[in-house]
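Lab notebook, bench 4. The sequencing result for the construct came back, and we need a structural model before the next group meeting so we can plan mutations. Quick request posted to the team channel:

Model the 3D structure of this chain.
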Amino acid sequence: MALPQRHRLKGQRVFDQVYQRGSRHQGPAMVLRILDAQPGLLPLEQQLHPPSPWRCGVVVSSKVHKRAVRRNRLRRLLHGHLLAQSIGAGGRSLWLLLSLKPGSADLPSQALLGECNQLLHQAGLTP
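Done. Here's the predicted structure in token form:
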């Protein structure tokens, strides 16, 4: 399942900011980066959408798996999982970036989702 437009994180400048300035929470199969939102960096079409408490991007490089079909399945799996979570930003707007590490495609989906839950909890975004 794809993320709704209001929860998508897009734009090269946005991703660069999250990579450079975001706080990092790391697990064996993925890295979660979090940054307070800076709406002026968003592309114009996203600035027109209603603000949401969080926007997320999921990065799955070709080092994770060579086949695009498998990478897209992993991305959709994590998108659906993030939508099902009750992510609380504590009244502020956040940008989240999940990056999968090489070798994470070999893990069962339950292990990936469990690690995602653990990183969100570690960051204080879920109860």
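The chain has a mean pLDDT of 89.
Will bring this to the meeting.
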